[in-house]
Design goal:
With about 280 residues, this protein is an alpha/beta fold. It has nine helices and eleven strands. The strands form two sheets. It has a six-stranded mixed β-sheet with strand order 5-6-8-9-10-7. Strands 1-4-3-2-11 form a five-stranded mixed β-sheet, with helices on both faces.
Length: about 280
Amino acid sequence: MQPATVGELEELLFKAFPREDAEAWDQPGLSVGDRGARIAKVAVALDQNVEAVLEAAEAGCNVLVTHHPPFIKGGPVEFGPAAQVQTTGPGRMVYEAARRGVNLIAMHTNADRAIATRDAFARQLGCTCDGNFEFLLDARREQFGTGFGAILLPDWEARPSLRLVAQACLKTFGGDPRVWGDPERTVNRIAFLNGSWNEPELYDACVRDGIDCMVVGETRYHGCIDAQPYLSIVELGHDRSELALVDVIEQAIIEGGVDAERVVKLACSGRNWWTPGTER
């Protein structure tokens, strides 16, 4: 049945990405809006920011579903227009969403743990998925159940060297990936970790499991240095490592019954920063 209201859309998203899969500190679901409001059109993007809200409203969407929530621990000190709110934070974005009638929903760490998410990472790099990565850090997790990250096995005709992994990442994710390790090293097992990873035990867990290369959104510089020569690392950038989640969330919305013609993927995802060599 096609969801008619914002609350029904939130409910179908929690069926695809269960609330209980989210981290305890996370706040997935509706953050701004009215669960009883009827859906006009749905926009999907990676982040909730002023640009996304304005683009959604201009496209006739009264719901914006993203991966990242507007805030996690505590809210803004003020909600208002840009001319009034001179502090950092999402206060201006929340104000514009409320003013323009754009309901805000996020599927954050619960979507990170979805099986559909790690399968999307495997497809992006042309690899076989050998389960989630989190089970290496948490014995309570099952390898082929829900969990953060993905263990990928390259299905490539050529010998999968670190150079080829880095080139595949550049082609797939764009940006300007940073690489640690010998370019000619053979890579048979990849740990794909979207987002931010700073756990000290992360690198040792990779080495213990025979991971040759970690492809990560962002991680600790000194951890990357200390991991050499045992673990090669490709750092993509937090947002670029998670753009596949926009597609995963969009697909869940459509499979949940929303007409594909009423779902709009916003162009602003992945445009939050640039480098001189990759100017947008």
